[in-house]
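In response to the reviewer comment on reproducibility (Comment 2.3), we provide here a single inverse folding case reported in full, input and output, so that an independent group could reproduce the run without further information from us. The structure tokens appear first.
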């Protein structure tokens, strides 16, 4: 359902009081019956069941208003927000009967209502006015539904003083013991800005662990919250797989998604070293030519290249199967190297090495 415009800031109020003469307006009330009627009404907001406090709501927060009477009566609710704008909350076109039975409490919106009251954007003191009458009131000169689409009536008065004057005209023809009012107050404050973000890490394998900026976050396939905005290195570890390393950017108020697809890693078991590594390679290739290979020629060539690069100080990060062979990722300081070994035509083995180095200036 649509939000309740200012209604949601639903303030308004009325304080039962006594006076010797005409109704009077004060900072703590909107309209006061000059007599002490035997009819009583109370209005409350859901954060203050006593009616003695000024609870605080944040912009966008839901609010409920409750009212009760000691006799069967018609109850009218009005909102006066911090800027003085007045909205008629009850009756409205969204639902909610304004006839309240004696010694019962009516809640607006009701628990089964299909709409909510949401606190509006104007911060400051709000007042909710409840006016109870033993007979229905004619509010045509005070409020009206401007269009067929309006869910709440527009009140012509602005501010509590004009509202009090307008309501005085409505109730003055009635006996003083047939109407009464009450007021509830609450403050509206700005929504606290969201200063942290979240990170979701999903994987295709079980038992993976997530590290952010060197700190262990926990198991993968989880959402981690309350992370300060920024760009961080991420490492995901899983048993039997090479670590997955990347970086993520965390933004306030949102969750960054990272999906890690671990690839099966072939365990590289270097062949025993011989006095002549090149001869070792040709032995395997010769075995393949004779139909009794000691090892797959592409694997043999790949293993040899792994040993060569490891001898140069490179560290093997990952090995994976590719079409017709193998591919490995190596790291040495700021340099990364990729080795691709595949079988070619006419009993050939293709070995391709690409290298990338990042220099700082």
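Designed residues, in position order:
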């Amino acid at each position: 359902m649509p939000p309740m415009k200012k209604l949601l800031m639903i303030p308004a109020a009325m304080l039962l009081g006594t006076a010797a003469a005409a109704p009077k307006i004060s900072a703590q009330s909107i309209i006061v019956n000059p007599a002490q009627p035997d009819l009583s009404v109370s209005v409350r907001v859901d954060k203050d069941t006593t009616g003695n406090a000024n609870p605080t709501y944040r912009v966008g927060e839901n609010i409920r208003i409750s009212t009760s009477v000691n006799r069967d009566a018609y109850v009218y609710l009005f909102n006066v927000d911090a800027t003085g704008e007045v909205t008629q909350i009850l009756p409205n076109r969204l639902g909610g009967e304004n006839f309240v039975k004696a010694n019962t409490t009516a809640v607006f919106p009701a628990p089964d209502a299909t709409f909510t009251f949401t606190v509006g954007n104007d911060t400051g003191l709000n007042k909710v006015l409840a006016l109870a009458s033993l007979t229905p009131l004619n509010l045509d000169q005070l409020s009206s539904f401007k269009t067929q689409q309006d869910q709440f009536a527009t009140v012509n008065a602005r501010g509590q003083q004009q509202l009090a004057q307008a309501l005085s005209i409505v109730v003055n023809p009635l006996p003083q013991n047939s109407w009464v009012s009450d007021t509830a107050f609450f403050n509206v404050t700005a929504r606290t800005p969201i200063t942290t973000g979240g990170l979701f890490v999903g994987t295709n394998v079980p038992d993976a662990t997530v590290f952010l900026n060197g700190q262990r976050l926990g198991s993968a396939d989880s959402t981690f919250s309350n992370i300060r905005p920024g760009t961080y290195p991420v490492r995901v570890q899983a048993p039997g797989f090479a670590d997955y390393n990347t970086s993520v950017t965390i933004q306030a108020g949102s969750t960054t998604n990272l999906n890690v697809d671990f690839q099966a890693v072939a365990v590289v078991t270097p062949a025993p070293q011989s006095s002549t590594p090149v001869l070792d390679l040709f032995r395997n290739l010769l075995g393949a030519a004779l139909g009794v290979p000691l090892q797959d020629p592409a694997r043999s060539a790949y293993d040899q290249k792994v040993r060569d690069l490891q001898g140069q100080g490179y560290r093997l990060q990952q090995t994976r199967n590719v079409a017709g062979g193998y591919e490995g990722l190596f790291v040495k300081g700021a340099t990364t190297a990729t080795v691709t070994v595949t079988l070619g035509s006419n009993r050939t083995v293709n070995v391709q090495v690409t290298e990338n180095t990042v220099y700082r200036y």
